[in-house]
Amino acid sequence: MDQAVSTFSQQNAPVTSYLTLGDGDFTFSLDLARYLSQQQQSRSSSMDDGCNDSPATAILVATGIDSLKELTEKYKDTPFILDQLCQLQSPKLGISIHHGVNAIVHDPINKNNDPNGNVPPKTKADHVIFHHPHLGTEDAVLHGQFLAHIFHSATHYWMNDNDGVFHLTLVQGQFERWKCQAAAARHGLVLLHQECFTPPPVPNSTYNYRRHQTGRSFATRRPASKSITYTFGRENNEKRLSPPCLPWKGQPSPIELSMTIVKEKAKENDDDSIHLPCPFCDKMFREERSRKCHIRDRHPNGDVHCSTQEPGKKRSRDVGDAVFECTKCTDASGGRRVFQSDDALQAHVRAKHNGMHTYIAPDWSIAKKNSLKQNSMMSDSFHSVQPSASPRGIEDMECKICGATIWSSTLSDHLLSFVPSTECTLYQCSFCSKSFREERARLQHENFCTIRVQT
């Protein structure tokens, strides 16, 4: 839905266009419009004082994934924010607001560069801005695929062909966990600059750090967690006409830009360097949580001994050290299954012998047959790979955009997985307050739920 579109005179002045994607409550777009308006007024004052520089003209296209009705129900101050945004229109600042716009364009049939009926055709901007994209679930692999689709849409549909740049803001750590660098390179984008995220510097800022879709605040996580804005540009665009940073940021020098690219390429070539050692054995880990899990499972009593394994072979248990046996099942050799801690044994018993759900079907086994018809319309974005030897009897497919291997009966589900859920709760545990986006995850949780065990 087009909320408001301004008419403005360019007067042969240079035009800089801005496009905000996924702006949850439009408070960032409002602050950006206020900043641009102040800059226009400042330039006009300079002209009145005898400055010969012509005032630059700016265009702001603000978009969000929610419909106007959903946005109003979610945020009480929506009418006020949108009204304030519309009032900032001027002959030198064009503003348009659009609702129900998905930042990810996945309609391969549309060849006219009209990615969404809710935005003007051929909408491309010098500065494309997307802050804190999130799907509402903690899944690093899924978000890595999500970023690949975002970069694909940015470079093909949203960024100006000549010198457009894409500003992506992530919470510290997400860039590495979601493999952002590889996802950008897959679609011909390189990192030009990065710096701490700061909203437009305007008095009485309205921008809120709110979790996408749910409306919950980031305030409890800040300033403990830091957000970083990464600026990307096309790899083959060596002569960039406009500065890569947002106007209120300090523009990096060409040397700084070159150093940023060199550092990121060096980091990319440093193939997953490991640097966290186990204090009890010679194992190394890339993440602290992996090291903690290793110490908990392999060194529960602070024992220095840790069984090792040859590369490519399954880890063998040291039966001599294991004193906890499961009396209800046997291992491959016919003996009792053994565990190295009582916690591991109890977890095994809860999941395998006392679990409510002894069989949890994988996702591909519950795919709907009618999705095959929908998939035939999207075949341009996928190509077949060699079928794997599996009992599902379904040909594997690979998404050209993110490289994910999926099943031909779930291509539409693959695309729908990048649409943030509008519901706060999808599947809730029958015993505790935890909720899950997938039914399979809920079933797995209920097998281990501590509340169920206590009851």
Summarize the structure.
The chain contains 13 helices and 17 strands. With 455 residues, the chain is of the alpha/beta class. Strand 16 (427-428) and strand 17 (435-436) form a beta hairpin.
What would your notes on this structure say?
The structure is a single chain. The chain has 455 residues and is α/β, with parallel strands linked by helices. The chain folds into three domains: 2-269, 3-Layer(aba) Sandwich (Rossmann fold), CATH 3.40.50.150; 276-360, no CATH class; 363-416, no CATH class. 29% of the residues lie in helices and 18% in strands. It has helices at residues 27-48, 68-74, 78-87, 140-158, 174-177, 180-186, 254-269, 288-298, 342-352, 371-375, 411-416, 439-448, 450-454, and strands spanning 2-5, 15-21, 57-63, 93-98, 127-131, 165-171, 189-196, 227-234, 276-277, 284-285, 324-330, 336-339, 382-384, 396-399, 405-407, 427-428, 435-436. The strands form five sheets. Strands 1-4-3-2-5-6-8-7 form an eight-stranded mixed beta sheet, with helices on both faces. A three-stranded antiparallel beta sheet has the order 13-14-15, with no helix packed on it. A two-stranded antiparallel ribbon has the order 9-10. A hairpin with a 6-residue loop joins β9 and β10. α1 runs parallel beside α3 and α4 (140-158) packs parallel to α6. The longest helix is centred in the N-terminal third of the chain and has 22 residues, at 27-48. Residues 4-11, 109-114, 212-217, 307-319, 363-375 and 384-394 have low confidence and may be disordered.
